[in-house]
Each structure stands twice: as C-alpha cells, then as structure tokens.
Amino acid sequence: MHSKTIYLNGQRVAEDAARISIFDRGFQFGDSVYEVIRCYNGVPFLLDEHLSRLERSLRELSIDLPQPMSEIRDLCVKAAREQGRSPSVLYIQITRGVADRSYSPPSGLVPTFVLYCEDKPVTAERVYAEGISVAVLEDIRWLRCDIKSTSLVASVFQKMSAAAKGADDVLLERAGVGVVESGSGNLFVVKDGCITTAPEGNLILSGTSRALVLQLARGLSIPIKLAVPQTAEIYSADEVFITSTTAEVLPVCRVDSVRIADGTPGPISRRLLRAYRAEVTRETNYHYEE
Ligand code: PDD
Description:
Layout: E1 5-8, E2 11-13, H1 25-29, E3 32-40, E4 43-44, H2 47-60, H3 69-83, E5 88-95, E6 112-119, H4 125-130, E7 132-138, H5 153-164, E8 169-174, E9 178-182, E10 186-191, E11 194-197, H6 208-219, E12 224-226, H7 231-235, E13 239-244, E14 248-255, E15 258-259, H8 267-284
Parallel strand pairs: 7-8, 7-14, 11-12
Antiparallel strand pairs: 1-2, 1-6, 3-4, 3-5, 5-6, 8-9, 10-11, 10-13, 13-14, 14-15
The structure holds N-(5'-phosphopyridoxyl)-D-alanine.
C-alpha cells in the first residue's frame, strides 16, 4: 500500500508527525465534522457537493472554517493528485479546536483541520454481482443525522451488532418512522419500477451519491417516491440498494432472514450503477475494470 498524503492545518506532514492534542474537542467530545470523498485517477469526485455539505455541517454546529473554502478546495485537489492515480479516498475532519474540557465551548477557538488521502481500491466486482446482506436494527443515533458529525459511536455499535448477526451492514429503523438509511449510506427500495428513498431531513444524511442517483434516475425516466420505507415493504421489494461515496450503488440481496426477490441484484440497481460509473468516467476519466 502506498503511503498516505497528509495535511495537518494546511501543512504537509509525515504520518508519524500527524499529531493532535489530547485536549482537542474532536477527540474528547466528537465535536467535529467530516467528509469522505472518492478520488478516481487522482481527481476528487463530486468535490463541490461534498464541500458544500461540509460547510453546512460546520455552520449548523457553529464551528469556524479553518481556511477559506476556496483554499480547502485547492488542497483537496492537490492532495488527491499527490496521492496518485489509483482509486483513493480523501478524508477531511474539522474539529472545534483545543480547549480545557468543558461541554460548553469557549469562543474564539482555532479549528483543527485534518485532510488526508489514502489508496482505497474500488469495491470488488464480486460484491456488486452477489449483493450484500443487512440486518434491520433500531436507529439509536441522535436527531441531527443531517449533520456529518464524527460523533459516530452509535453507528459503530450498530455495525458491530449487525456483524454479530452475520450481516454485512445495517439498516436503521427509526421508531414510528420507518427504515431511514443504512449505517453509512442511503437506502433505496424498488417496487414495480418505482424507487423509494427517504426525503431529506434531520433523520438522514443527505448523501452526495443519493443526489446523483436521483438525478440519474430522473434522466432514465425511473419514477421516484420520496418516503421512508417500512420494514415490510423492504422484505417484499423487487430490489433494495444502498448508495454511498465508497460503495457507489450497492445491491442488497438479503435483509434479516429474508431473500429479496430472487436473491440477485435487479435490473434497476444495475442500470443505476452503470449510469453512476459513466458519470465517474466522464468527470475523472477513470475506467473501471469490468
Ligand atoms: N458515509 N448516510 C450516512 C449515515 C453516511 O455515513 C453516508 C456516508 C451516507 C452517504 O453519503 P455520501 O453519498 O455523500 O457518501 C449516508 C461515508 C462514506 C462514511 O462515513 O465513510
């Protein structure tokens, strides 16, 4: 594996020099936000969409921008290019900064800004061909899932619980609402040619891949319904898939002990994955090995 390209507070540093204070509020409280951006061919994909979400997350939590957005954008482009042409991911984390421990933050803190790029192969073709299994678990996260915060212990716990049940991932069921999203991606359910996904709001993260998939579906004249799917609808769906930066369009073929349709990825997921990848190739000139 190639080494990582790391910038700490805007300066390029070696991995063993990339250190932050134990008094950083990101470390002590999870008081920070992040983004994960896919890079293909050394080019960050959907960069502006990720950066506007980053700016929104910061604004919602009243965390200052460490640098003007244009400089952050330039650094993303530079780090991805420096990392090289193999598929990689850019990780950005901005914390509120360093202070004596107290829940209420003092004013005037200087945010800590971590940005790194590391090689990460695209998900294996076998996974797209076979689909994944998921377990439906109660969503125990907070009520501001629209903010991409690093306070992720509920998600870690839920992923561990799903793994203990032998599932590859988790679908999160919010009491009285329905199955809002997956542990780290947005959920889509297909029935009679129509795709359903949860509307934007405080119970889901508004995914950059979700927005692209909705745009591609409109272009392909696939009907869309914005509603939160119920578990019973998922069990009886024709297709289920998850979208995320790292997984693109990932078919789900088993939910709890239920096989979805014939247990293989369906035609709409496959069409949308192809369309998604065509968009990646158009933007980054990356060609998938298929
Ligand atoms: N996860 N919902 C949740 C809870 C997520 O954590 C993510 C992304 C998404 C999809 O967002 P996008 O399409 O912009 O990647 C939805 C990233 C990949 C992560 O935490 O690693």
